[in-house]
Amino acid sequence: MQKDFHQEFELAKKVIVEASNIPLKYFNTHFEIEKKRDNSIVTIADKETESYIRSAFDHTYPQYGFIGEESDVNEKSISWIVDPIDGTAAFARSLPEFGMAIALKVEKEIIFSLIYLPTSQQLFSAYKNEGATLQDKRISSSKVTHLNEALFSLHGSSIKSEKYKEYFETIIQNYPIRVALSVAVESTHMASGKIECLIKFNQALWDIAPESLLMQEAGIDVTDEFGDPLIFDFNKESRYNFVASTQSLLTEEKTKLYLKR
Question: 78: exposed, middle or buried (C-beta count within 10 Å: 0-12, 13-18, 19+)?
């Protein structure tokens, strides 16, 4: 019988809210912006927030591993997965479209996840097989059945990919879209029924592991680009393509979302 992780779940809720004071302290102020090897940006707020979260978890559960965006990985069978600020590009421009993400994985399974939006103080959470919530109240995905009624969220760098140019051009030409800077924020829109499809390619583990469980528990299918189950290897260097779509969409409609092998 699998161990119960609700104590860890409650601790994570407390820690993510407390840690949000760090990005809020820096938000809409002047600070240095650094470029990482992959050309993405990082700020002092990202680093301080992750350090705070990691210290809080290590203090209570020193036996658990840690996989974070901004620090060295210590992957174990039970590990925290942390994105201190998802949407740093928005955060750095004083746009409120950023969030914080935490998940706990056991072996190859995500047990629970949290998405916190600091500027609106909204806490989204999901525990496997127990549903998705906003401020502890159940939420669910959109009930739209046809793609021509759906709103898509796409990722800027995905759209510009030469490899998938034709795929994204088809979506852009046929459906309403929004281009967003934070997977965490967009996953909350999916989970609360505001949009119907979220497609992001070349995403890191911390950009999709917490978000995937939140969306799945709200009634959303999260697959790879071919419509197959999304499988994580929990390697910091791995990148994932994912397609998230509401379960209410008709099967024949869903097939239009996936690439052919």
Answer: middle
For 175-214, letters b (16+ CB in 10 Å) and e give bebeebbbbbbbbbbbbbbebbbbbbbebbbbbbbbbbbb
Residues in the chain: 261
Task: Please say whether the beta carbons of 230 and 222 come within 8 A.
Answer: yes
For the domain with range 147-257, which CATH number is right: 3.40.190.80, 3.40.50.300, 1.10.3720.10, 3.30.360.10? 3.40.190.80
The two three-digit tokens of residue 22, written as one number: 């760090």
Q: What is the pLDDT of residues 168-216, one digit of tens each?
A: 999 999 999 999 999 999 999 999 999 999 999 999 999 999 999 999 9
Q: What is the DSSP letter of 187?
A: H
Lowest mean pLDDT among 57-71, 74-88, 147-161, 222-236: 147-161
CATH superfamily of domain region 6-138: Fructose-1,6-Bisphosphatase, subunit A, domain 1 (3.30.540.10)
Q: State the pTM of this model.
A: 0.95
Residue type, 13: K
> What are the distances in angstroms from CA 182 to CA 67, 95, 99, 166?
19, 11, 7, 23
Can you count the helices (H) and strands (E) in the chain? Answer: 9, 14
Q: Which helix (H) or strand (E) holds 159?
A: helix 156-159
